Amino acid sequence: MRRLKEKVDAGADFIITQLYFDNKDFFHFVKRCREIGITVPIIAGIMPVGNVAQIKRFTAMCGSTIPEKMLTDLEGIADNADQVAQYGIDWSTRQCRELLAAKVDGLHFYTLNKSKATRQIVENLRHDGALK
After folding, report:
1. Which residues are registered as beta bridge partners of 107?
2. Would you say 15 and 70 are in contact if contact means Cβ atoms under 8 Å apart?
3. Among 122, 100, 127, which residue's Cα sits nearest to residue 48?
4. From residue 14, how far is each of 30, 92, 103 by CA, in Å?
C-alpha cells in the first residue's frame, strides 16, 4: 500500500485493480487506500471467466482468489465450455451491477482479446438499467 501511495503521490491519475471475483475484496481495498490518503479514482478490474484452468492459473499468479462457491460451480461444469462462458458472464454481470449501484469510479474489463463475454455483460447491464 505504501508503494501504491508513492506512485499516486508521484503523479498517477487513477488505479486499476487486478482481477477479483468478490466485491468485498474491492471495497476493502478502496477503504484501505482512502485510509492512507489515496484519493484518485480506483477502477474495478473485472475478468469474465471463460476457462476454468486458465482462471486458476491467473489467480495463482497474481495472488487473487476464487470464491469457494464459484470454484465449486465451475469445477462442476469445467468440461462444458459454453456453460463456463455463460457462468462467467452471469457472475460478472452480477458483480458489475453491485459495483455500479455502489457508484464505483469505473470498470475495467480484462478481455484477453476475447470481447464476446464483455459485450454480453455490457448489454445485460444496459438492458436492466444498471448502465446508461
Report:
1. 44
2. no
3. 122
4. 12, 22, 16
Prediction pTM value: 0.92
List pLDDT tens digits, range 49-58: 999 999 999 9
- Report the first-to-last Cα separation within the chain, whole angstroms: 33
The DSSP H or E segment spanning 17 is strand 15-19
Nearest to 129 by CA among 89, 100, 88: 100
Q: Which three cell numbers stand for residue 100?
A: 455500479
For the chain, list the domains and their CATH numbers: 2-127 (3.20.20.220)
Cell 460478472 appears where? 92
**2-37: pLDDT as tens digits:** 999 999 999 999 999 999 999 999 999 999 999 999
Give the type of residue at 122: V
